[in-house]
Specification:
This protein is α/β, with parallel strands linked by helices. The chain is 37% helix and 19% strand. The longest helix is centred in the first third of the chain and has 25 residues. Bound molecules: nicotinamide-adenine-dinucleotide. The site of nicotinamide-adenine-dinucleotide has 27 residues, from helix 2, helix 6, strand 5 and strand 9. This is NAD-dependent epimerase/dehydratase family protein.
């Protein structure tokens, strides 16, 4: 298949592009390098050094003989987005290209507005481009489990059958997200569902859990193929951050009681799920939702697992929760559709943690310890992350 990976320079987009290429698909990536820019803004960088996109692609070509096309541009630029689709003529578009950190979106008004404009307008341009260039293109869109929040009922895969005053209907599952970033994903989901219903587009919304891990079968072939590994309190996902804290001998920083339960997924399963979604497209007019997670764990359980597996002493520190979220709640998620398509999950295991510890140990001298402490507070309108 011809598959276009938007956000192909990012943490997940790059390994996904490699995996799809390895599976024999013709792949191109697009990116505006916004993610590298956030690092300059925040004064942090990926723990694992990453090469330029062009170098990575050249290394992949040398190793495998496979070419990956590159489009450098911004999805919020409609002309760029249309031209790219007309030029590459994809059968599937995998859309990772959004600002994806909840704390970044909660810094202040400027960052909240940027996040929603970048994400919602970029996706709108893409929907219009698909609508006008080729309605057969299957959109595979990265959403997040955070769209749902933590309702008192089981979280279904995108849709809910309800009975109300004796009548029944199938409605989009109600969403109650916890940040302006997560809200941008909810807005995207509604816009995508609308275009499936009105224009007959086909789309899969992958409501993904928190991703952990840094290596896939393809990225380990050469150091220059490495994907980024973020550990700072703005972009670092929680397990990656705990691993670094353990390696540095710092306490693992659990926000509040740590009773918050979250869906999690190994990066190797992310790339496989996207492959499965592309190779088994939604029907024309169908808005399909998969809950892309493999396990649910509380933040305290994640910290306990790291403590148990780390060969050394680990302390756990409970900080005042900078976020506004329930710390004890019901959480039961249905996630069978990707398993039905053939996903065999990697579960968070001692082995994985050991391999993550090795990555963290190798680059420990690059860690900026002050970047690990949370600075963005959900209750404030302006957090002191920025000078401006
Ligand atoms: P990332 O920031 O590393 O990658 C996103 C890429 O998109 C970056 O390279 C960035 O430069 C690019 N980008 C952003 N806006 C763009 C625009 N307007 N035009 C072109 N390129 C643009 O993030 P990631 O961790 O790889 O996440 C990818 C996707 O998966 C995101 O949509 C995110 O919401 C979703 N997701 C991630 C996680 C996770 O744990 N990392 C969990 C759930 C969902």
């Amino acid at each position: 298949m011809r598959i276009l990976v938007l956000g192909g320079d990012g943490y997940l987009g790059w390994p996904t592009a490699l995996h799809l290429s390895q599976c024999g698909h013709q792949v191109a990536v697009a990116d505006n390098f916004a993610r590298r820019q956030y690092d300059f803004e925040l004064g942090v960088e990926s723990l694992v050094p990453i090469e330029s996109l062009q170098t990575r692609i050249a290394v992949w070509k040398d190793l495998t003989g496979e070419s990956i096309g590159v489009y450098v541009g911004d999805l919020t630029d409609a002309d760029f987005t249309y031209e790219m689709l007309r030029d590459f003529r994809p059968e599937a578009v995998v859309h990772f290209a959004e600002q994806r950190a909840a704390p970044y979106s909660m810094i202040d008004r400027k960052h909240a507005v940027y996040t929603q404009v970048n994400n919602v307008v970029g996706t709108m341009n893409l929907l219009y481009a698909i609508g006008e260039v080729d309605r057969d293109i299957h959109l595979v869109k990265l959403g997040t489990m955070g769209e749902y929040g933590t309702p008192e009922i089981d979280i279904e895969e995108g849709w809910l059958e309800i009975e109300h005053k004796g009548r029944t209907d199938r409605v989009l599952f109600p969403k109650r997200p916890g940040s302006f970033y997560h809200l941008s994903k909810v807005h995207d989901s509604h816009n995508i569902e609308f275009t499936c219903r009105i224009w007959g587009l086909r789309a899969t919304d992958l409501n993904q859990g928190v991703v952990y891990g840094q290596q896939t079968a393809e990225t380990v072939l050469d150091d220059r193929l490495a994907t980024r590994f973020d550990y700072d309190a703005v972009f670092g996902t929680v397990l990656n951050r705990f691993v670094i804290q353990a390696v540095l001998g710092h306490p693992l920083t659990v926000y509040g009681t740590g009773g918050q339960r979250r869906g999690i997924i190994d990066i190797r399963d992310t790339v496989r799920c996207v492959q499965l979604a592309c190779e088994n497209p939604a029907d024309r007019g169908e808005f399909r939702v998969f809950n892309q997670m493999t396990e649910a764990m509380s933040i305290q359980e994640l910290a306990d697992t790291v403590e148990r597996c780390f060969p050394g002493a680990v302390e756990i520190e409970h900080l005042d929760n900078p976020r506004v979220e329930l710390e004890e709640h019901y959480y039961n998620v249905v996630h069978t559709r990707l398993l039905d398509l053939g996903l065999t999950p990697h579960l968070l295991s001692d082995t994985l943690i050991t391999s993550l510890f090795d990555v963290a140990k190798r680059y420990a001298d690059r860690v900026q310890p002050e970047a690990l402490r949370p600075k963005v507070n959900w209750r404030d309108h302006a957090s002191p992350v920025q000078e401006t």
